[in-house]
Amino acid sequence: MTTQTTHRTPAGAAYAILDIAREQVLERGKGLNEAQLVEILQLPDEAIPAAMQLAHEVRLKHCGEDVEVEGIISIKTGGCPEDCHFCSQSGLFDSPVRGVWLDIPELVKAAKETAATGATEFCIVAAVRGPDIKLMNQIKFAIDRINEEVEINIACSLGMLNQRQVDQLAEWGVHRYNHNLETARSYFPEVVTTHSYEERLDTCNMVKAAGMELCCGALIGMGETLEQRAELAAQLAALEPHEVPLNFLNPRPGTPLENQGIMDGKDALRAIAAFRLAMPRTVLRYAGGRELTLGDLGTREGLLGGINAVIVGNYLTTLGRPATADLNLLVELNMPIKELQKTL
Amino acid sequence: MTAIGAMQAEYCGHCGGTVAGALFEDVVEDVVEDGTVIGGGTVRKGTNGERPTSHPHSTSDSHQGCQQRLAMEPPRYCAQCRRRMKVQVTPLGWSAECSRHGRVSR
Predict the structure, then answer these.
(1) Where are the domains of chain B?
(2) Nearest CA to A77 among A96, A98, A93?
(3) CATH topology for A57-332?
(4) Smallest Cβ distance to B90: which of A91, A110, A291?
(5) Is the Cβ pair B38, A313 closer than 8 Å?
(6) Residue B84 and residue A314: Cβ atoms within 8 Å?
(7) Residue A111 CA to its chain's centroid (Å)
Protein backbone atom coordinates (compact mmCIF):
# COMPACT_ATOMS: atom_id res chain seq x y z
CA MET A 1 0.00 0.00 0.00
CA THR A 2 1.17 3.52 -0.77
CA THR A 3 2.66 5.35 2.17
CA GLN A 4 1.64 8.87 2.97
CA THR A 5 3.97 11.77 2.30
CA THR A 6 4.89 13.37 5.60
CA HIS A 7 7.12 16.31 4.72
CA ARG A 8 5.79 19.73 5.64
CA THR A 9 6.26 23.10 4.04
CA PRO A 10 8.60 25.49 5.94
CA ALA A 11 6.61 28.16 7.82
CA GLY A 12 7.65 31.09 5.60
CA ALA A 13 6.58 29.37 2.41
CA ALA A 14 3.42 28.20 4.14
CA TYR A 15 2.08 31.67 4.50
CA ALA A 16 2.94 32.46 0.87
CA ILE A 17 0.37 29.91 -0.34
CA LEU A 18 -2.19 31.32 2.07
CA ASP A 19 -1.59 34.81 0.67
CA ILE A 20 -2.06 33.44 -2.84
CA ALA A 21 -5.23 31.62 -1.76
CA ARG A 22 -6.64 34.76 -0.18
CA GLU A 23 -6.30 36.68 -3.41
CA GLN A 24 -7.20 33.86 -5.80
CA VAL A 25 -9.98 32.05 -3.93
CA LEU A 26 -11.45 34.56 -1.53
CA GLU A 27 -11.24 37.63 -3.73
CA ARG A 28 -11.64 36.13 -7.21
CA GLY A 29 -13.55 32.94 -6.41
CA LYS A 30 -11.14 30.73 -8.35
CA GLY A 31 -10.30 27.47 -6.64
CA LEU A 32 -6.73 26.37 -6.04
CA ASN A 33 -5.19 23.99 -8.55
CA GLU A 34 -3.73 20.58 -7.73
CA ALA A 35 -0.17 21.81 -7.12
CA GLN A 36 -1.43 24.59 -4.87
CA LEU A 37 -3.58 22.14 -2.95
CA VAL A 38 -0.52 20.00 -2.24
CA GLU A 39 0.99 23.05 -0.55
CA ILE A 40 -2.11 23.47 1.62
CA LEU A 41 -1.98 19.80 2.60
CA GLN A 42 1.68 20.21 3.54
CA LEU A 43 1.16 23.23 5.78
CA PRO A 44 2.97 23.07 9.12
CA ASP A 45 0.82 22.63 12.21
CA GLU A 46 1.20 26.27 13.22
CA ALA A 47 -0.35 27.41 9.92
CA ILE A 48 -3.50 25.28 10.27
CA PRO A 49 -5.54 27.91 12.17
CA ALA A 50 -4.78 30.52 9.49
CA ALA A 51 -5.74 28.08 6.75
CA MET A 52 -8.99 27.21 8.53
CA GLN A 53 -9.79 30.87 9.06
CA LEU A 54 -9.25 31.59 5.38
CA ALA A 55 -11.39 28.60 4.38
CA HIS A 56 -14.14 29.89 6.67
CA GLU A 57 -14.00 33.32 5.08
CA VAL A 58 -14.20 31.72 1.64
CA ARG A 59 -17.21 29.69 2.68
CA LEU A 60 -19.01 32.74 4.14
CA LYS A 61 -18.31 34.89 1.09
CA HIS A 62 -19.15 32.35 -1.60
CA CYS A 63 -21.75 30.11 0.09
CA GLY A 64 -23.24 32.23 2.85
CA GLU A 65 -23.72 31.51 6.51
CA ASP A 66 -26.37 28.77 6.24
CA VAL A 67 -25.55 25.20 7.12
CA GLU A 68 -27.36 22.42 5.23
CA VAL A 69 -28.52 19.53 7.41
CA GLU A 70 -29.18 16.07 6.00
CA GLY A 71 -30.15 12.66 7.26
CA ILE A 72 -29.15 9.44 5.49
CA ILE A 73 -30.63 5.98 5.67
CA SER A 74 -29.98 2.59 4.17
CA ILE A 75 -32.94 0.99 2.42
CA LYS A 76 -30.88 -2.07 1.50
CA THR A 77 -27.94 -2.91 3.71
CA GLY A 78 -25.12 -5.37 3.03
CA GLY A 79 -24.62 -8.04 0.40
CA CYS A 80 -23.14 -5.65 -2.17
CA PRO A 81 -21.31 -7.41 -5.05
CA GLU A 82 -18.66 -4.68 -5.28
CA ASP A 83 -15.33 -4.79 -3.44
CA CYS A 84 -14.82 -1.20 -2.23
CA HIS A 85 -12.09 -1.99 0.30
CA PHE A 86 -13.38 0.44 2.93
CA CYS A 87 -16.94 -0.82 2.97
CA SER A 88 -18.43 -3.21 5.51
CA GLN A 89 -21.41 -3.77 3.24
CA SER A 90 -19.52 -5.65 0.57
CA GLY A 91 -20.66 -9.24 0.35
CA LEU A 92 -17.12 -10.21 -0.65
CA PHE A 93 -15.58 -9.55 2.77
CA ASP A 94 -15.92 -11.32 6.09
CA SER A 95 -17.80 -8.43 7.65
CA PRO A 96 -20.29 -8.80 10.51
CA VAL A 97 -22.82 -6.67 8.61
CA ARG A 98 -25.79 -8.79 7.51
CA GLY A 99 -28.08 -8.11 4.59
CA VAL A 100 -31.33 -6.37 5.51
CA TRP A 101 -34.06 -4.40 3.74
CA LEU A 102 -35.89 -1.53 5.40
CA ASP A 103 -39.66 -1.48 4.96
CA ILE A 104 -41.39 1.63 3.69
CA PRO A 105 -43.30 2.54 6.89
CA GLU A 106 -39.99 2.58 8.78
CA LEU A 107 -38.45 4.69 6.03
CA VAL A 108 -41.26 7.24 6.19
CA LYS A 109 -40.97 7.33 9.99
CA ALA A 110 -37.24 8.03 9.69
CA ALA A 111 -37.90 10.78 7.14
CA LYS A 112 -40.33 12.43 9.56
CA GLU A 113 -37.84 12.23 12.41
CA THR A 114 -35.13 13.65 10.20
CA ALA A 115 -37.30 16.55 9.04
CA ALA A 116 -38.15 17.32 12.67
CA THR A 117 -34.47 18.09 13.31
CA GLY A 118 -34.61 20.89 10.74
CA ALA A 119 -32.92 18.81 8.06
CA THR A 120 -33.84 19.65 4.49
CA GLU A 121 -32.30 16.61 2.82
CA PHE A 122 -33.10 12.92 3.27
CA CYS A 123 -30.88 10.57 1.34
CA ILE A 124 -31.99 7.00 0.64
CA VAL A 125 -29.02 4.70 0.11
CA ALA A 126 -28.74 1.13 -1.18
CA ALA A 127 -25.68 -1.12 -1.09
CA VAL A 128 -25.78 -2.24 -4.70
CA ARG A 129 -23.69 -2.03 -7.86
CA GLY A 130 -26.70 -0.41 -9.47
CA PRO A 131 -30.45 -0.62 -8.95
CA ASP A 132 -32.52 -3.44 -10.44
CA ILE A 133 -36.22 -3.19 -11.25
CA LYS A 134 -37.22 -4.35 -7.78
CA LEU A 135 -35.16 -1.62 -6.11
CA MET A 136 -36.31 1.06 -8.53
CA ASN A 137 -39.95 0.15 -7.83
CA GLN A 138 -39.24 0.24 -4.12
CA ILE A 139 -37.63 3.68 -4.49
CA LYS A 140 -40.59 5.03 -6.48
CA PHE A 141 -42.98 3.78 -3.83
CA ALA A 142 -40.83 5.24 -1.05
CA ILE A 143 -40.59 8.64 -2.73
CA ASP A 144 -44.35 8.81 -3.16
CA ARG A 145 -45.04 7.86 0.45
CA ILE A 146 -42.50 10.31 1.83
CA ASN A 147 -43.79 13.14 -0.35
CA GLU A 148 -47.32 12.46 0.92
CA GLU A 149 -46.30 12.87 4.53
CA VAL A 150 -43.05 14.81 4.88
CA GLU A 151 -41.72 18.17 3.71
CA ILE A 152 -38.15 17.30 2.83
CA ASN A 153 -35.98 17.06 -0.26
CA ILE A 154 -35.29 13.46 -1.27
CA ALA A 155 -31.87 12.38 -2.45
CA CYS A 156 -30.81 8.91 -3.54
CA SER A 157 -27.60 6.91 -3.66
CA LEU A 158 -28.17 3.68 -5.55
CA GLY A 159 -24.84 3.01 -7.20
CA MET A 160 -24.18 3.18 -10.92
CA LEU A 161 -27.13 4.14 -13.11
CA ASN A 162 -28.04 3.75 -16.75
CA GLN A 163 -29.66 6.59 -18.67
CA ARG A 164 -33.18 5.26 -18.22
CA GLN A 165 -32.73 5.05 -14.47
CA VAL A 166 -31.31 8.56 -14.33
CA ASP A 167 -34.31 9.85 -16.26
CA GLN A 168 -36.74 7.98 -14.01
CA LEU A 169 -35.22 9.34 -10.80
CA ALA A 170 -35.30 12.89 -12.17
CA GLU A 171 -38.92 12.42 -13.24
CA TRP A 172 -39.87 11.13 -9.81
CA GLY A 173 -38.53 14.30 -8.24
CA VAL A 174 -35.26 13.09 -6.79
CA HIS A 175 -33.59 16.33 -5.81
CA ARG A 176 -30.00 15.19 -5.60
CA TYR A 177 -28.09 12.02 -6.45
CA ASN A 178 -25.05 10.83 -4.55
CA HIS A 179 -22.27 8.95 -6.26
CA ASN A 180 -18.83 9.39 -4.75
CA LEU A 181 -15.50 9.36 -6.52
CA GLU A 182 -14.13 8.22 -3.12
CA THR A 183 -10.47 8.65 -3.99
CA ALA A 184 -8.09 9.95 -6.63
CA ARG A 185 -8.12 8.36 -10.05
CA SER A 186 -4.50 7.25 -9.55
CA TYR A 187 -5.36 5.49 -6.27
CA PHE A 188 -8.77 4.10 -7.23
CA PRO A 189 -7.49 0.69 -8.43
CA GLU A 190 -5.97 0.16 -4.97
CA VAL A 191 -9.39 0.59 -3.39
CA VAL A 192 -11.89 -0.82 -5.89
CA THR A 193 -11.37 -3.53 -8.51
CA THR A 194 -14.92 -4.48 -9.48
CA HIS A 195 -15.67 -1.27 -11.36
CA SER A 196 -13.69 1.62 -12.77
CA TYR A 197 -13.26 5.28 -12.00
CA GLU A 198 -14.65 6.03 -15.45
CA GLU A 199 -17.85 4.15 -14.68
CA ARG A 200 -18.31 6.35 -11.64
CA LEU A 201 -17.72 9.46 -13.72
CA ASP A 202 -20.27 8.29 -16.28
CA THR A 203 -23.02 8.13 -13.67
CA CYS A 204 -22.01 11.52 -12.25
CA ASN A 205 -22.15 13.15 -15.66
CA MET A 206 -25.52 11.61 -16.51
CA VAL A 207 -26.97 12.85 -13.23
CA LYS A 208 -25.83 16.39 -13.94
CA ALA A 209 -27.08 16.30 -17.51
CA ALA A 210 -30.52 15.20 -16.29
CA GLY A 211 -30.80 18.27 -14.08
CA MET A 212 -30.43 16.60 -10.70
CA GLU A 213 -27.97 18.06 -8.24
CA LEU A 214 -24.85 15.92 -8.05
CA CYS A 215 -23.50 14.95 -4.65
CA CYS A 216 -20.06 13.49 -5.19
CA GLY A 217 -17.85 12.79 -2.23
CA ALA A 218 -14.47 11.81 -0.99
CA LEU A 219 -13.20 9.29 1.50
CA ILE A 220 -9.77 10.21 2.75
CA GLY A 221 -7.35 8.42 5.03
CA MET A 222 -7.26 5.20 3.00
CA GLY A 223 -3.49 5.27 2.53
CA GLU A 224 -3.42 7.75 -0.33
CA THR A 225 -0.55 10.23 -0.47
CA LEU A 226 -1.04 13.94 0.11
CA GLU A 227 -0.49 14.39 -3.61
CA GLN A 228 -3.31 11.95 -4.33
CA ARG A 229 -5.52 13.77 -1.84
CA ALA A 230 -4.87 16.98 -3.76
CA GLU A 231 -5.51 15.11 -7.01
CA LEU A 232 -8.90 14.00 -5.71
CA ALA A 233 -9.86 17.53 -4.66
CA ALA A 234 -8.88 18.83 -8.09
CA GLN A 235 -10.80 16.04 -9.86
CA LEU A 236 -13.89 16.79 -7.79
CA ALA A 237 -13.54 20.50 -8.54
CA ALA A 238 -13.40 19.71 -12.26
CA LEU A 239 -16.63 17.74 -11.95
CA GLU A 240 -18.35 20.73 -10.28
CA PRO A 241 -20.71 18.82 -8.01
CA HIS A 242 -23.33 20.70 -6.05
CA GLU A 243 -22.20 18.95 -2.89
CA VAL A 244 -19.08 17.15 -1.69
CA PRO A 245 -19.50 14.96 1.39
CA LEU A 246 -16.13 14.58 3.06
CA ASN A 247 -15.67 11.21 4.75
CA PHE A 248 -12.75 10.07 6.89
CA LEU A 249 -11.91 6.38 6.97
CA ASN A 250 -13.46 4.50 9.84
CA PRO A 251 -11.66 1.16 9.48
CA ARG A 252 -14.32 -1.52 9.51
CA PRO A 253 -13.80 -5.05 10.80
CA GLY A 254 -13.44 -7.63 8.08
CA THR A 255 -12.62 -5.19 5.30
CA PRO A 256 -9.22 -4.99 3.58
CA LEU A 257 -8.68 -1.60 5.24
CA GLU A 258 -9.53 -2.72 8.77
CA ASN A 259 -5.92 -2.22 9.89
CA GLN A 260 -5.35 1.05 8.06
CA GLY A 261 -5.46 3.12 11.24
CA ILE A 262 -7.33 6.31 11.93
CA MET A 263 -6.32 9.43 10.07
CA ASP A 264 -4.47 12.11 12.00
CA GLY A 265 -6.82 14.90 13.09
CA LYS A 266 -4.52 17.68 11.91
CA ASP A 267 -4.29 16.10 8.47
CA ALA A 268 -8.08 16.00 8.44
CA LEU A 269 -8.24 19.72 9.20
CA ARG A 270 -5.73 20.45 6.44
CA ALA A 271 -7.91 18.42 4.08
CA ILE A 272 -11.04 20.36 5.04
CA ALA A 273 -9.29 23.65 4.32
CA ALA A 274 -7.87 22.30 1.06
CA PHE A 275 -11.22 21.02 -0.22
CA ARG A 276 -12.87 24.35 0.56
CA LEU A 277 -10.06 26.23 -1.17
CA ALA A 278 -10.43 23.93 -4.18
CA MET A 279 -14.20 24.40 -4.36
CA PRO A 280 -15.23 27.79 -2.98
CA ARG A 281 -18.92 27.52 -3.95
CA THR A 282 -19.65 23.85 -3.27
CA VAL A 283 -21.67 22.51 -0.36
CA LEU A 284 -18.93 20.84 1.69
CA ARG A 285 -20.49 18.36 4.07
CA TYR A 286 -19.11 16.68 7.14
CA ALA A 287 -19.83 12.99 6.62
CA GLY A 288 -18.72 9.65 8.04
CA GLY A 289 -15.75 9.16 10.31
CA ARG A 290 -15.45 12.69 11.68
CA GLU A 291 -16.33 11.57 15.19
CA LEU A 292 -13.44 9.13 15.20
CA THR A 293 -10.92 11.32 13.40
CA LEU A 294 -11.74 14.73 14.84
CA GLY A 295 -13.95 14.26 17.87
CA ASP A 296 -16.12 17.03 19.30
CA LEU A 297 -13.45 19.71 19.09
CA GLY A 298 -12.71 18.91 15.47
CA THR A 299 -16.37 19.15 14.56
CA ARG A 300 -16.35 22.73 15.80
CA GLU A 301 -13.08 23.53 14.04
CA GLY A 302 -14.38 22.16 10.75
CA LEU A 303 -17.55 24.22 10.92
CA LEU A 304 -15.32 27.24 11.44
CA GLY A 305 -12.96 26.09 8.70
CA GLY A 306 -14.92 25.66 5.49
CA ILE A 307 -17.60 23.06 6.24
CA ASN A 308 -21.15 24.27 5.56
CA ALA A 309 -23.23 21.10 5.80
CA VAL A 310 -23.57 18.15 8.15
CA ILE A 311 -25.07 14.70 8.20
CA VAL A 312 -27.19 14.75 11.31
CA GLY A 313 -27.31 11.74 13.59
CA ASN A 314 -26.27 8.30 12.42
CA TYR A 315 -24.69 7.01 9.24
CA LEU A 316 -25.54 3.85 7.31
CA THR A 317 -23.99 1.23 9.56
CA THR A 318 -22.28 3.30 12.26
CA LEU A 319 -23.48 5.89 14.73
CA GLY A 320 -22.82 9.61 14.58
CA ARG A 321 -22.89 12.30 17.22
CA PRO A 322 -26.32 12.81 18.76
CA ALA A 323 -28.32 15.07 16.47
CA THR A 324 -28.86 17.49 19.32
CA ALA A 325 -25.10 17.91 19.79
CA ASP A 326 -24.65 19.16 16.23
CA LEU A 327 -27.82 21.26 16.28
CA ASN A 328 -26.84 22.88 19.58
CA LEU A 329 -23.38 23.58 18.20
CA LEU A 330 -24.89 25.37 15.21
CA VAL A 331 -26.91 27.54 17.57
CA GLU A 332 -23.83 28.26 19.64
CA LEU A 333 -21.86 29.20 16.52
CA ASN A 334 -24.77 31.37 15.34
CA MET A 335 -24.99 29.41 12.10
CA PRO A 336 -28.57 29.20 10.76
CA ILE A 337 -29.83 25.94 9.30
CA LYS A 338 -30.61 26.24 5.62
CA GLU A 339 -34.34 26.34 4.99
CA LEU A 340 -36.20 23.97 2.75
CA GLN A 341 -36.35 24.94 -0.91
CA LYS A 342 -37.93 22.57 -3.37
CA THR A 343 -35.75 23.03 -6.41
CA LEU A 344 -37.19 20.39 -8.67
CA MET B 1 -32.51 0.52 25.14
CA THR B 2 -35.10 -2.21 24.86
CA ALA B 3 -34.30 -5.87 24.84
CA ILE B 4 -36.07 -9.17 25.02
CA GLY B 5 -34.98 -11.05 28.08
CA ALA B 6 -32.63 -9.89 30.79
CA MET B 7 -29.98 -12.58 30.62
CA GLN B 8 -26.41 -11.74 31.38
CA ALA B 9 -24.40 -11.09 28.22
CA GLU B 10 -22.09 -13.96 27.33
CA TYR B 11 -20.79 -12.62 24.05
CA CYS B 12 -19.41 -9.29 22.99
CA GLY B 13 -21.87 -7.39 20.77
CA HIS B 14 -19.00 -5.88 18.82
CA CYS B 15 -16.64 -8.77 18.05
CA GLY B 16 -18.71 -11.78 19.05
CA GLY B 17 -15.96 -13.01 21.38
CA THR B 18 -16.77 -14.50 24.74
CA VAL B 19 -16.96 -12.25 27.73
CA ALA B 20 -16.98 -14.97 30.36
CA GLY B 21 -14.55 -17.60 29.13
CA ALA B 22 -17.19 -19.84 27.60
CA LEU B 23 -16.15 -23.28 26.35
CA PHE B 24 -16.35 -24.14 22.66
CA GLU B 25 -16.79 -27.82 22.25
CA ASP B 26 -19.84 -28.62 20.14
CA VAL B 27 -19.86 -28.82 16.38
CA VAL B 28 -23.15 -28.06 14.64
CA GLU B 29 -24.20 -27.62 11.05
CA ASP B 30 -23.87 -24.23 9.43
CA VAL B 31 -26.81 -21.91 9.98
CA VAL B 32 -27.63 -20.35 6.61
CA GLU B 33 -29.96 -17.44 5.88
CA ASP B 34 -30.31 -15.71 2.53
CA GLY B 35 -27.47 -17.78 1.18
CA THR B 36 -25.09 -16.57 3.85
CA VAL B 37 -23.59 -18.63 6.64
CA ILE B 38 -24.53 -16.80 9.80
CA GLY B 39 -23.81 -19.40 12.42
CA GLY B 40 -22.79 -22.90 13.19
CA GLY B 41 -19.33 -24.47 13.21
CA THR B 42 -17.73 -25.09 16.56
CA VAL B 43 -19.84 -23.37 19.15
CA ARG B 44 -20.26 -23.20 22.86
CA LYS B 45 -21.71 -26.37 24.29
CA GLY B 46 -25.45 -26.21 24.61
CA THR B 47 -25.95 -23.46 22.03
CA ASN B 48 -26.53 -23.40 18.30
CA GLY B 49 -24.92 -20.06 17.81
CA GLU B 50 -22.52 -18.04 15.77
CA ARG B 51 -19.14 -19.24 14.57
CA PRO B 52 -16.44 -18.61 17.12
CA THR B 53 -14.14 -15.85 16.06
CA SER B 54 -10.38 -15.77 16.33
CA HIS B 55 -10.63 -12.59 18.36
CA PRO B 56 -7.88 -12.53 20.99
CA HIS B 57 -10.26 -11.30 23.67
CA SER B 58 -11.05 -13.94 26.21
CA THR B 59 -12.18 -12.08 29.29
CA SER B 60 -14.62 -9.28 29.94
CA ASP B 61 -11.77 -6.90 30.87
CA SER B 62 -10.22 -7.23 27.43
CA HIS B 63 -13.40 -6.02 25.73
CA GLN B 64 -12.92 -2.43 26.84
CA GLY B 65 -12.01 -1.46 23.28
CA CYS B 66 -15.14 -3.16 22.03
CA GLN B 67 -17.22 -1.28 24.58
CA GLN B 68 -15.79 1.98 23.30
CA ARG B 69 -16.64 0.99 19.74
CA LEU B 70 -20.17 0.10 20.81
CA ALA B 71 -20.65 3.74 21.77
CA MET B 72 -20.18 4.53 18.09
CA GLU B 73 -21.85 1.60 16.39
CA PRO B 74 -24.68 -0.81 17.07
CA PRO B 75 -23.97 -4.36 18.22
CA ARG B 76 -23.58 -6.90 15.44
CA TYR B 77 -23.62 -10.08 17.54
CA CYS B 78 -26.31 -11.33 19.86
CA ALA B 79 -25.09 -11.15 23.43
CA GLN B 80 -26.86 -14.42 24.25
CA CYS B 81 -25.91 -16.69 21.36
CA ARG B 82 -23.39 -14.71 19.21
CA ARG B 83 -25.53 -15.03 16.10
CA ARG B 84 -24.98 -12.16 13.72
CA MET B 85 -27.97 -9.87 14.02
CA LYS B 86 -29.93 -8.00 11.37
CA VAL B 87 -29.11 -4.38 12.14
CA GLN B 88 -30.92 -1.33 10.84
CA VAL B 89 -29.50 2.11 11.53
CA THR B 90 -31.68 5.19 11.10
CA PRO B 91 -30.68 8.84 11.50
CA LEU B 92 -31.92 8.93 15.09
CA GLY B 93 -31.71 5.33 16.25
CA TRP B 94 -30.94 1.71 15.50
CA SER B 95 -32.34 -1.76 16.00
CA ALA B 96 -30.67 -5.13 16.01
CA GLU B 97 -32.58 -8.38 15.71
CA CYS B 98 -31.48 -11.88 16.58
CA SER B 99 -33.58 -14.61 14.99
CA ARG B 100 -33.55 -16.49 18.29
CA HIS B 101 -33.47 -13.85 21.01
CA GLY B 102 -35.41 -10.94 19.56
CA ARG B 103 -34.85 -7.27 19.04
CA VAL B 104 -32.71 -4.69 20.75
CA SER B 105 -33.11 -1.04 19.88
CA ARG B 106 -32.10 2.43 20.88
Answers:
(1) 24-105
(2) A98
(3) TIM Barrel (3.20.20)
(4) A110
(5) no
(6) no
(7) 20
